[in-house]
Amino acid sequence: MPKKLYIETVGCQMNVLDSELVVAALRKRGYELTDNTRDADTVLLNTCSVREHAEEKIYSALGRLKLAKQAHPEKIIGVIGCMAQNHKRKVFSRAPYVDLVVGPGQLHQVPDLVEKVAAGAGPQLEVSLDRKAGSRDAVERSHESFDPLRDPSMRPTPFQAYVRIQIGCDKFCTYCIVPSVRGPEQSRPPEHILAEARQLAGEGCREITLLGQTVNSYRYRTGEQSTRFSDLLTQLHDIDGLDRIKFVTNYPKDMTDDVLAAVRDLPKISKYLHVPVQSGSNRMLARMKRGYTVEDYREMYARVREWVPAAAVTSDFIVGFSGETDEDYEQTVELVRECRFKNSFIFKYSVRPGTKGAELYADDVPEEVKRRRNNHLLALQNEISEEDNQAFLGQDVEVLVEGPSKSATRAAGAAASDEAGHDAPPEDAPPAADAPQLQLVGRTMCDRIVVFTGNRRQIGQILPVTVFDANAHTLFGEVVTQHVGPEVFSLQA
Ligand code: SAH
Ligand code: SF4
Ligand code: F3S
User: How many structural domains compose the chain?
Assistant: First the structure.
């Protein structure tokens, strides 16, 4: 009988990709996925440390697994990903029944470690070196990019894929744990990325999303040769079969003209730019050590508008960072009003032990004030997003159909989002046997979510949809019915 694996993933797209690859590696060892922990021989939690809440959620999940482990001591429980790297042995002390703690730079070891535990070797801990625990070279080597050959049968959807172009981060924003848990910034060799993208395209993948903490800082050097992010985009653009190339996340200071030229000139490159500003106050940006001023951001934003007028620009914000006054917050509000982001992910500052922010600054904004600013900014952003979406009424947009729409109802309209704030991919659900028509969800080239009625055959196709309603998060439409064959039109969205 095949062994059963249950995996739960929180955090950003990096974790979603890591989980896909861990599942693929375990399936090669005879594992099958199950959707409940009861049947599982192995339970893996792929974790996030970006805010305290994300970590507490995992400890609660572990608490719920305690009884199951007592009843079935042979059940293997593993904590993998960023919190494993952040807490290391502390995971065992808070949940002594955990068998496996594996950091994101050691994921290639998961199948062997699971087998070791199964063979009775006892608890296993595999993490990468801390940033200061060795030379740059040694620390880099201990954070291995986990990008084995992709297996088409194991991708969640055959027509979309994440592709890692960079691991780690060297920006060291003072609030952020990511440089500690994901290690030094390292760009993957372009030939590996291109080979992976070609393989994916050959298997019918139409859209790839390039992943990195600061993708536009990508640079790969060998000898005399240097590949910039814009060079990589140009090379990826040449791959036959790919229709859309998206990328997240951008660092404002590295949004150079060559990147904007590539976005403007290459039709397959998505004109969706996630460029988080975090705050509209120079005092906060300096404390956050973001490396730019609000004036720099405005200059960058103006260049985006000049080079790619139709671009959809989105941002992240942290409210209630140490020392944030009403005045600082008002400057953030002003910036949001001015830039009119397509949408923003807004977070309350969560102090992260081990960061410079935790060391240097008091977490001195009361929770109540953080909550008020968070809700206020969210309401403003929603207003802007809704107005922005209303502009699509009556227009045709081109939608890559992702699957059945689970949560989107016209009344609710709240977009599902993960720990890092980004939209969660739609989950697949079987259609009712007597209902060939179902609610489908997909996205435009600029990452706008579109819900419409269609049928299962349309999943994976790029279809024109006429928008007849819109709220802050979702466009609602119907498929344009003139029959020109599913792929022959070229509408802009
Ligand atoms: N590399 C990306 C973001 C990674 S984390 C970038 O630089 O934009 C995703 C978002 O989480 C960040 O943009 C930030 O808004 C938020 N975030 C990170 N650390 C946080 C903390 N300690 N408290 C609250 N929000 C945080
Ligand atoms: Fe964190 Fe800043 Fe790096 Fe983004 S750029 S991952 S916010 S340190
Ligand atoms: Fe790690 Fe992503 Fe969270 S890099 S800390 S899973 S936001």
Answer: 3
Phi, psi (rounded to 5 degrees) for 238: -75, -10
What's the length of the chain? 493
Compute the radius of gyration of the chain from its Cα atoms: 23
Both 32 and 128 in one domain: the answer is: yes
**H-helix or E-strand containing 245?**
strand 244-248
Q: Report which protein residue has its CA nearest ligand 3's atom 3.
A: 48
Percent of the chain whose pLDDT exceeds 90: 87
443, 456: one domain: yes
Specify the pLDDT at position 164: 97
- The mean per-residue pLDDT over the stretch 169-189 comes to 97
Over 80: is that where the pLDDT of 330 sits?
yes
pTM confidence score = 0.93
Of 343, 365, 387, the domain-final residue: 387
Q: State whether 353 and 429 are in the same domain.
A: no
Q: What is the dihedral of CA 20, 350, 183, 223, to 10 degrees?
A: 100
Q: How far is CA 424 from CA 41, 149, 291, 411, in A?
A: 27, 24, 29, 19
Ligand nearest to the CA of 82: 3
Q: Are 61 and 24 in contact (CB under 8 A)?
A: no
Structural tokens at position 425: 């991919």
Nearest Cα residue to atom 11 of ligand 1: 420
Distance between CA atoms of residues 400 and 29, nearest Å? 33
Lookup result for tokens 């395209």 = 201
For ligand 3, whether the C-beta of 373 sits within 6 Å is no
Q: How far apart are the first and last CA of the chain?
A: 49
Q: Is 179 in the pocket of ligand 2 (CB under 6 A)?
A: yes
Same domain, 208 and 355: yes
* Protein residue with least CA distance to atom 12, ligand 1: 316
Taking the CA of 170 as reference, the closest ligand is: 2
Task: Pick the residue whose CA is nearest to atom 5 on ligand 2.
Answer: 171
pLDDT tens for 63-83 read 999 999 999 999 999 999 999
pLDDT digits (tens, 9 = 90+) for 237-272: 999 999 999 999 999 999 999 999 999 999 999 999
The residue range of the domain holding 469 is 393-490
Which ligand sits closest to the CA of 174? Answer: 2
